[in-house]
Q: What sequence folds into this?
């Protein structure tokens, strides 16, 4: 059985307690359970990760690239959090490791502060889901399956 990696960036470990009016009341554990249930419907496993450290996320993308080449991973659904707007390193990792990524954001970043309107991830993503709450993860998984699964 192949796997889908769900990768979460900084502060997403605070989901459910940080600005619930913006991000909702679901926790990251709730999101993980939802993703595992959705993946199982399609015959996939989930490798669910979160880190507040950019280098750890870069390493996960590199690992994903190796797993994809080995036929063990379909791709990555990635909520890079604030690194969306700052990380050229994540952009370069996605391109360099040739990883199909669907970028996900719980809130509508374009309806928020101006600094959130630019993404370094979007130009190398196969798709983007923005502003659909935590349901965006499921939509991202479905998009990845539609774009990448053979």
A:
């Amino acid at each position: 059985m192949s796997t889908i990696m769900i990768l979460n960036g900084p502060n997403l470990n605070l989901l459910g307690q940080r600005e619930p009016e913006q991000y909702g009341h679901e926790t990251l554990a709730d999101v993980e359970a939802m993703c595992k249930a959705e993946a199982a419907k399609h015959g996939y496993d989930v490798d669910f990760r979160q880190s507040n450290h950019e280098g750890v996320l870069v390493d996960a993308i590199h690992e994903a690239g190796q797993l994809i080449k080995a036929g063990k991973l379909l791709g990555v659904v990635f909520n890079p959090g604030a690194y969306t707007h700052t990380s050229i390193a994540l952009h370069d990792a996605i391109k360099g490791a040739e990883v199909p990524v669907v970028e996900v954001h719980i809130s509508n970043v374009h309806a928020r502060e101006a600094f959130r309107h630019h993404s370094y991830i979007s130009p190398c993503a196969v798709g983007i889901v923005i502003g659909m709450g935590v349901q965006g993860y499921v939509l991202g998984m479905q998009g990845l399956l539609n774009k990448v699964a053979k």
